[in-house]
Amino acid sequence: MESFSELRKKYKAEIDEMCLMDDNFMSAVLQDKACCELVLRIILKRDDIEVLECKTQYSVTNLHGRAVRLDVFARDKTGAYLNIEVQRNDKDAVPQRARFNSSLIDANVVEKGAEFKDLTETYVIFITENDILGKGLPLYTINRVIAETGEIFHDKSHIIYVNSQITDDTALGKLMSDFKCKNPEQMHYEVLSDTAKLTKEREDEKGMCKIIDDIVQRESKEIKQKERIDTALRMIDEGIFTVEQIAKISNLSLSEVEELIKKRSA
């Protein structure tokens, strides 16, 4: 078993290699309001954004218990709610995921007795590793429109995809360059550079400790998931259990078990 000092050294080395495209590190940096404001102002092309509250790794759950953990969840001075996500895996950045995040935010911020006309503005922002929408644009702004007229349907809901592949000399391009930069001293934006450097050096709940805790939680979840899969595979190989029984005992979903069966028989 690795000693505490060995684990700390291992995690410190991992943190040193992180950039803002790593969700744990990005969340730790953007909990700083000034950093969060900078990112939002550049992406939304607005200089008037003032972040009043910023939560990171914030969990929201629907009525059926399906939860997602939002990387950054902020509220500005107008009352608008803004969610920033880093998506390095294409399957986690599908349009339906953005829709789900948007719907969960609505469900969790509306107070009992509030009128629908008073629903606040919401933004779901995906910063993606690849050009998910495939049009070669640096940024995609998605608003609902009336199909017959092309007019905006003003429901105050916005989804934005930022293509991190484009790192040109524009404000957004420089921001995406900073998101991919492992060395804070080489970043364009001073507030991001200073906070990223401090985050990598600090050994408290706002720096290394928080990131290490996130890494440990992630590794723990991965170990538990591997154990569930191993249990399911053994039951599949026995050939005497139903899909429902395997799912119940292994604590996997029916779709996960069906996918394992498909792969096993391929």
Overview of the molecule:
- By secondary structure, the chain is an alpha/beta fold.
- The chain has two domains: 4-201; 219-265.
- Helices cover 45% and strands 17% of the residues.
- It is built from nine helices and six strands, in the order H-H-H-E-E-E-H-E-E-E-H-H-H-H-H.
- Helix 1 (4-16) packs across helix 7, helix 7 packs across helix 9 (254-265) and helix 8 packs across helix 9.
- The two termini are 38 Å apart.
- The mean pLDDT is 87.
**How many DSSP helices?**
9
Radius of gyration: 21 Å
Characterize the main sheet. 6 strands, mixed
End-to-end gap: 38 Å
Number of strands: 6
Q: What shape does the CA trace take? A: globular
Structural class call reads alpha/beta
Helix amount? 40-55%
| Uncertain regions spanning at least 5 consecutive residues | none
N-to-C SSE string, H for helix and E for strand:
HHHEEEHEEEHHHHH
How many domains comprise the coordinates? Answer: 2
Strand content: 15-25%
Q: Residue-averaged pLDDT, rounded?
A: 87
- Name the strands of the widest sheet in spatial order: 1-2-3-4-6-5
Briefly summarize what is shown:
With 266 residues, the chain is of the alpha/beta class. It has helices at residues 4-16, 23-30, 33-44, 95-109, 171-179, 190-201, 208-238, 243-250, 254-265; strands at 51-61, 67-76, 81-87, 122-128, 139-142, 157-163. β2 (67-76) and β3 (81-87) form a beta hairpin.
